[in-house]
Design brief:
Helices cover 46% and strands 13% of the residues. It is of the alpha/beta class. It folds into 2 domains: 189 residues, Class I glutamine amidotransferase (GATase) domain (Rossmann fold); 114 residues, Arc Repressor Mutant, subunit A. It has an 8-stranded mixed β-sheet, sandwiched between helices. Strands 7-8 form a two-stranded parallel ribbon. α10 crosses α11.
């Protein structure tokens, strides 16, 4: 079955969030084969139609909202972008979103597109997420909406929302998985050369990225090597040798630049990687523990208790509940 998907854009809308979805759907068609009917029939719409100048001035040809007034839309996707505030003042666009949003099977907002859905009155009492930079403004504007502070994406019934930017591809894969199944979603992730398929429970800014930002680049290659060899011997002596430094000097310089000991960084990376696996898969905990270099479940549990305050099993349970719909999934289509 082909599903009708409409993207709403406006002047200075973000191409990254839009293309994250469009590229995923295009790769899906290539994965399925060109002779197959497309899984998604795509429309890009704006308030007036015609050529819309997206961010950095790149043009996008659109249909007007009036063209789709009588059309059935299965999934309505509200894109984000720097022009969202002007879009909020467009009564024609907001009224159309309010009307269509009540009739669609799935309403998705990407980044600041969540503002448009809230302005249309579709989000009161619902759990949503937006880009972390916009959290304070969103809470101030829409106090009746339950904003999650730092998740990649959230599902609340038929309301889906994401942080936008690069997370748009994770969001698109979640939509594909919901419609077509997990196997196809993971095949797509491989086609898109994604490092991992993140679940909605992952934070918008990962711990590893925050730690790497403290460095001036001296340990970038070492960090990449650590990530690729989590199941190996990562004692400080081996890391120092890898960095071409004496053990004592390495420990001192690393602590000064990163703000923690090398062994602490390794533990954080292992817990972060294990957390992603726990949240995004049904892989056995013992398998994850070995692959992430803990050796056994007990060592991983102790590390989780130190850094997360809960054990791996409880973390998985909580993480996999976060993006789940509060209502039973509609399997009619």
């Amino acid at each position: 079955m082909t599903r009708n998907v409409a993207f709403v854009i406006y002047e200075d809308a973000s191409l990254l969030t839009l293309m994250g979805f469009l590229e995923t759907f295009q790769q899906l068609q290539l994965e399925r084969g060109t002779k197959e009917l497309p899984a998604y029939n795509i429309s890009v719409v704006s308030s007036t139609g015609g050529t819309i100048r997206t961010y950095f001035g790149l043009p996008m040809q659109t249909s007007s909202v009036s063209d789709l007034k009588q059309e059935r839309i299965d999934t309505l996707i509200l894109t984000g972008g720097l022009g969202f505030r002007e879009a909020l003042a467009d009564s024609t666009l907001i009224d159309w979103i309010g009307t269509k949003g009540q009739a669609v099977t799935r309403l998705c907002s990407v980044g600041t597109g969540t503002f448009l859905a809230a302005e249309a009155g579709l989000l009161n009492g619902r759990r949503v997420v937006t880009h972390w930079l916009m959290n304070d403004e969103f809470r101030s504007r829409y106090p009746k909406v339950k904003l999650e502070s730092d998740l990649i994406f959230v599902r609340d019934g038929n309301i889906w929302s994401s942080a936008g930017m690069s997370s748009a591809m994770d969001f698109a894969l979640a939509v594909v998985e919901d419609d077509l199944g997990r196997r196809i979603a993971f095949r797509l992730a491989e086609r898109l050369v994604m490092f991992l398929k993140r679940s909605g429970s992952q934070p918008q800014i990962g711990t590893i990225l925050r730690l790497q930002a403290r460095d001036d680049g001296q340990f970038d290659k070492l960090h990449e090597w650590i990530l690729a060899h989590l199941d190996g011997d990562l004692h400080v002596e081996n890391l120092a040798a890898r960095a071409g430094m004496s053990t004592r000097n390495f420990g001192r310089v690393y602590l000064n630049k990163i703000g923690m000991t090398p062994s602490k960084f390794v533990e954080i990376v292992r817990v972060e990687t294990a957390s992603q696996a726990l949240a995004g898969s049904d892989e056995r905990i013992s398998t994850i523990a070995h692959r992430c270099g803990f050796g056994d479940e007990q060592r991983m549990r102790r590390a989780f208790l130190r850094l997360r305050g809960i054990g791996p099993l409880e973390y998985r349970t909580r993480a996999q509940e976060i993006p789940a719909a509060d209502e039973p999934k509609d399997t009619s289509n």
